[in-house]
Structures are given as C-alpha cells and as structure tokens.
Amino acid sequence: MEINTLLILVGIGICAGILSGFVGVGGGMIIVPALIYFLGFSQFQAQGTSLAIMIPPIGILAVMNYYKAGNVNINFALVIAITFIVGGFIGSKLALRLPENKVKLIFGILMLYASVRMIWKAWGNLASDV
C-alpha cells in the first residue's frame, strides 16, 4: 500500500470516527463518498468496504461514553442491531441487482433529502431561539 493511500485511509477513518461519535454518522455519509471520490472505488466496493469497517469497532469507546452518561437504550439498540443484520443482507442483495448508477442516484437522493430536512429544521429552530 502506498503512503498516499494510507494517509487518505487514515484521514477517512479519523473524520468518520469523529463524526460518528459527534453526530452519529460515518459509514454511509462519510466513508462511502470518500472511498469513491478519493480512492476511485465503485459504489458497490465503497458500500461493501464501509460495511466491513463497521463490524468490529463501531464506536466501542464512543458507546461506552454515551452509556456511562445514561444515553444508551440497550434494549432498543439490541433490536435495531439484530434487524440491521437482516436489513443489511436484504439491502445488499437488492443493491447488487441494480445498475451501479441507479444505486448512486438513490444514495444521493437519500443524502440530499436528509441534509435538506435537517437544515430546514435547524434553521427553523435557530429562528425561534432569537
């Protein structure tokens, strides 16, 4: 592995980890686009790699901090984790049946929708805070 690639991967990991611990995003929102645009991965390679990244380390230390502060609902997390496994399997099967450009379009639309909705809501809350 070249040093440039290693540095890009470290940067992606650090940014995704910080944002994951800070606002709960990382895999799809940070890692997938970064792998595509900085390292030339295909959409499917980026998604598969992002999912592989999440298996062991998904916020172990961050979860410990949130748990100690009383901000983790273990029962809810277990249900979501179990169903996430099933959903991940189904989602990967569906994605791999579609052309890559359609998957990119769907991914982009979801990111755009989420960002516009969050900006709109935050903007409204800022206006009411004044």
**Helix content bin:** over 70%
* Residue-averaged pLDDT: 80
State the helix count: 6
Number of strands: 0
* Oligomer type: single chain
How far do the termini sit from each other?
A: 52 Å
Class of secondary structure makeup:
mainly alpha
- Rg over CA atoms, rounded to whole Å, is 17 Å
Main beta sheet: strand number and arrangement? none
Tell me, what's the shape?
A: globular
Low-pLDDT stretches are none
Determine the strand fraction and express it as a percent band. under 5%
Tell me about this structure:
It is a single chain. The chain is mostly helical and about 130 residues long. Among the domains are: about 1-60; about 100-130. The protein has six helices and no strands. It has helices at about 5-25, 25-40, 45-55, 60-70, 75-95, 100-130. α1 packs antiparallel against α2 (about 25-40) and α2 (about 25-40) packs across α3. The longest helix has 30 residues, at about 100-130. The chain starts with a helix and ends with a helix. About 10% of the residues are buried. The model has no long low-confidence stretch (mean pLDDT about 80).
List the keywords.
6 helices, mainly alpha, 130 residues, single chain
Question: In terms of topology, how is this protein built?
Answer:
Layout: H1 3-23, H2 27-39, H3 43-54, H4 60-68, H5 74-97, H6 100-129
